[in-house]
Amino acid sequence: MSDAASLPAPRTDADGAAAPGGSGSSMFAQAGDVAERFSERAGEVAERVGDAVERASEATGRFASQVVDRIRNNAEIQEERGTTTIANEVVEKIAGIAAREVPGVYDTGGDTARVFSAVRERIGLGDAEADQGVRVRLEGKKAAVDITIVIEYGFVVYTVTEKVRAKVIGAVENLVGLEVTTVDILVDDVHVPESGAAATAPA
Question: What does the alpha-carbon distance between residue 188 and residue 176 come to, in Å, rounded to a whole number?
Answer without folding.
Answer: 27
